Amino acid sequence: MQIDLAGRTALVTGSTQGIGLAIATTLASAGARVAINGRSAESVARAVAAVRAEVPAADVVDAPADVTTADGVAALVAALPDVDVLVNNLGIFEAVPALDISDDEWRRYFDVNVLSAVRLIRTFLPGMTARGWGRVIDIASDSAVVIPREMIHYGTSKTALLAVSRGFAKEAAGTGVTVNSVIAGPTHTGGVEDFVYQLVDRDLPWDDAQREFMRLHRPQSLLGRLIEPEEIAHLVAYLASPLASATTGAAVRVDGGYVDSILP
Question: Is residue 109 annotated as part of the catalytic site, yes or no?
């Protein structure tokens, strides 16, 4: 089984590091033309160089823009009018006591984690349906299903993203375009390292710290370790490919067995 995305253009939001960068690299290795997105031109340029170092023949496009704003999306579309594969990866998270989350923070999490995806789907879905082929993949989280006590605003925003994916899949029904979400489990990224050290002893070496974090705060995980970004990217590449033509409206898990359910 070979994943071939030659001739397809993919946009991965928030792809200058972590899961987004791993997804961009994996899609590029499958032959897609990949647009790297971040808020600053400098961070995007570094990510583009990283992808080309990993995949020397990669067709990579700089796409700096703040996709949390309508003006940012308009600027992005001016440079990248057509997209075949849209991966809404951009997201923010932080541990905050439930009663300390302000109205402004609730709004910010909805704007970044939900509305940015809605805006981009609304922008690119019509072109996909007109061409009769396309993929929309929203990166959600196990926190959408198992709401974490320490960041319920984040979990709630990811729950909303699952609903967004299902709803737009219905809008795209019968067009050749699929819309799915990926429920990513606890993943090893720079941002997550900071998050882990908010909750465990900062003096612990990283391997010990992550094991302590999983033991204390994610004991449901069957994997017993943090997931590597490339493991998320492999599932995204499959969903982006023609091989996943019968999968739509789904919330597909790559969570290390964290969500205690036999259903997605």
Answer: no
